[in-house]
Design goal:
By secondary structure, this protein is an alpha+beta fold. 29% of the residues lie in helices and 23% in strands. The chain has 12 helices and 21 strands.
Length: 434
Amino acid sequence: MIPIGITRDGAFVLEADDPAHFALGSSAAELPVVTDNGSRVHWPESSLDRTLRVVDAPGAAARVLGSVDLVFPILHGPYGEDGTIQGLLELLGLPFVGSGVLASALGMDKHFTKTVFQQASLPVAPWRTITAADWAEAPGMAYAALAELGLPAFVKPARAGSSVGVSRVTDPAELVRAMETALAEDDKVLIEAGLVGRELEVAVLQGRPGEPSRASVAGEVLVTGRDFYDFDAKYLGAAGIELVCPAALTPAELAEMQRMAIRAFDAIDGAGLARVDFFLTDTGWVINEINTMPGFTPISMFPTCWLQSGYTYPALIDELIAVALARLRTVGVAGPASCLIRGGRRRSGREGSAVGRQGHVGGPEALGRRGDDRHHGGQVDEHRRAADLARVDDDLTRRGAAVGRVPVERSGGVVFDPVDAVDVEARQRRGGRH
């Protein structure tokens, strides 16, 4: 693997190839931090090239890291899942897993997420949006919104993610502090009505061309000793939150939740994967948000829901690979393909990390996403693209990423159809063949 970190100042640096370096600690002070070690990773110079290079130190000669096949931008928050890194990759013609610029930007901006969902007749919690200018020039707008929406209410940055900057307001006197906290993360803030109900989440995987997207079993967030499901609970395993998966739902409730999650995914033109968060109230379902690049930590709901739906962790990653490669066939890529990006973020800023594999796709982490037949007005060489796709297919076959469909019975009598992808080594251990 080739870990690439993104520093707070936006420099791409080469990290040590040690998974322990990216392990989550038990406090914010122990979260992985990307520091500037002096190296600089250089992306391909145009859409006609796929070579990833690094300069190890100032003044050193560049050396080749490998040829980019697929990019997996596992990055949270601003500059990671808001369409900016996706735009960079699209400019370079590099295929990547997950949603493109539009869906990423929509999923990141809570105001526009809700606006799009409303247009798609999907229920959302009532809200009002207040900008930094509104707060500075007419703070009464925020107080009026609070009075209209009622207490308790939630004040949250529109484009922060991971519950960073979110406050629960139970008294108008708390509004100033809540607005200051949210505005420290973004210049646009939502004041949202608090809802009474169960907090549930479901994971979505895009289908292959011609096939519908799929939704997992549901997971439930039980708040037992905190005000809400905040950053510390999501990433540091803080006390006061219990995660239950699969959630106790009737078959009809689960089917409706899955249907709405897929509609939400389609409404923003999502690709690859997403997690959709709901409240189940006395009056029905309400969508809280959609996350276009959900967490993959041991306590994250996205992999947990799919594990409870019949996948193994490697099979889940292999399915993302298969979906991405199927999209490549439909849309095409602008040249050869071989890099994978993975990363995390702290409470704020640009920190992240990227992981690539030299020369080929391989391992459970390697993923891809559609490219574009037309880039900067040029046409892709069809023969080269066909050869590239054949090379990727051959590599996946050698590594045992064989994909088959297996019906699995799950809670509530719902039948799922996950992919059972078993690597070569596992097959050999069982005496099988691939």
